[in-house]
From TrEMBL:
Required for the first step of histidine biosynthesis. May allow the feedback regulation of ATP phosphoribosyltransferase activity by histidine. GO terms for molecular function: catalytic activity, acting on a protein; glycosyltransferase activity; histidine-tRNA ligase activity. The keyword Glycosyltransferase applies. GO terms for biological process: histidyl-tRNA aminoacylation; L-histidine biosynthetic process. The gene is hisZ. This is ATP phosphoribosyltransferase regulatory subunit. HAMAP family: HisZ.
Length: 393
């Protein structure tokens, strides 16, 4: 094993310097306040969870989990997502109440990377979970809240793609007959490998009509008319029920007056395999990956002993910052340069300014090698220097 360099970090880990930290914190606080306005309560879960519980319940691949052993020999994982830990908390401590639980979170998740590739192994998510509400209104609330949260963060150029995993599964099962053959096509869709999907469909021993139905799935993208077109390729009732749910969802979003940013993509597949019906991803300009995703997961809480439905979404804060582009500091930082002779005066002045909401740096002038560095760094500089110091400088 090669010796590590002095400043080398583990694969996929990143430092966050002051400017980026401040920007992230500002955006996160804005989103948190908007989520609270919708009645969601924030909770916090541990970074470490048992592999046998949260680790195995998570939809993240096993090779992406960070694992370690505790002193008793139990395998632990750094939490790979936030939904599974919150499902654990809700199943064990919160579901004795009759009303649906509206929970929110903001925290880091960890996913091991095989190679750098620009992808972080640690990133922060902010999101919500609505547990115990089976209605389409709850699914619509997720999308509406996500739109409102992104707009509050300052993002306007984004699009939400909505699909239904139940529709895709019913179509594949109906035509292909086996789960193994269906999984092959689902993998092509998840990887957005539409060329591979088409070539694979053409190679299947199916009728020309069934091949055409599978190929038409890729074209089912757009507005409300997409749902109408989808009825032409599905035959069984369960598949049609999925389309009825999407129709109802569209009507919910119309009542929110929030259809401008959404469109349907009935070929949508998520890497989170616990989704059971409606699912969605959000994309923004200048970012090549989804900045968030969500959907309904009605079976996850069964793994923790509770028969309860749920829906939610998660947003990637790092990708939101990337989508927002350049950022200017809204709160300038002021500097007070003082000498030992006028130290108390400087301290009192800084305290008053901070009470008025200003951000103040106090700097002893003897600790500054070049005053020009201060004038370049801060929005303005005040001098509280004794007479002797002035003459000396």
């Amino acid at each position: 094993m090669a010796k590590l360099f002095m400043f080398e970090k583990p694969l996929g880990m990143r430092d966050m310097l002051p400017h980026l930290y401040e920007r992230k914190n500002t955006v996160r606080l804005l989103m948190e306040e908007e989520i609270k306005k919708w009645g969601y309560q924030f909770i916090q879960t541990p970074m470490l969870e048992y592999y046998e519980t949260v680790g195995s319940a998570s939809a993240i691949l096993d090779q992406q989990l960070f694992k370690l052993l505790d002193q008793q020999g139990h395998t632990l994982v750094l939490r790979p997502d936030m939904t599974a830990p919150i499902a654990r908390v809700a199943a064990s401590r919160l579901l004795h109440k009759g009303l649906p639980q509206r929970l929110a979170y903001s925290g880091s998740v960890f996913r091991a990377q095989q190679r750098e590739g620009g992808r972080p192994a640690e990133f922060e998510q902010i999101g919500v979970e609505c547990i115990g509400d089976e209605t389409i209104s709850a699914d619509g609330e997720m999308i509406a809240l996500m739109i409102s949260t992104l707009q509050t963060a300052g993002l306007s150029n984004f699009r939400i793609s909505i699909g239904h995993i139940g529709f895709v599964n019913e179509l594949f099962t109906q035509i292909l007959g086996t789960e193994e053959r269906a999984e092959t096509l689902r993998r092509f869709l998840y990887e957005k490998n539409y060329v591979g999907y088409r070539e694979h469909v053409k190679s299947l021993l199916l009728s020309s009509i069934d091949k055409q139905r599978l190929l038409r799935l890729l074209d089912l993208q757009g507005g409300q008319e997409t749902i109408i077109e989808a009825y032409n390729i599905i035959e069984n009732e369960r598949g049609k029920e999925s389309l009825e749910q999407l129709t109802e969802l569209w009507n919910v979003m119309k009542d929110y007056d929030m259809t401008e940013n959404i469109h349907f993509d009935l070929s949508l597949i998520s890497h989170m395999n616990y989704y059971t019906s409606v699912l969605f991803e959000v994309y923004a300009g200048n970012v090549g990956f989804p900045i968030g995703n969500g959907g309904r997961y009605d079976c996850l809480l069964k793994k923790f002993g509770k028969e309860t439905v749920a829906t939610g979404f998660a947003l990637r804060i790092d990708r939101i910052l990337e989508a927002l582009g350049e950022w200017r500091k809204d709160s300038p930082v002021h500097c007070i340069l003082f000498s030992d002779e006028r130290r108390k005066e400087a301290f009192n002045k800084a305290a008053k300014e901070r009470e008025n909401g200003k951000r103040i740096v106090l700097q002893n002038i003897n600790g500054v090698k070049n005053i020009d560095d201060c004038t370049n760094e801060f929005s303005d500089v005040s001098f509280l220097i004794g007479k002797g110091e002035k003459e000396q400088r």
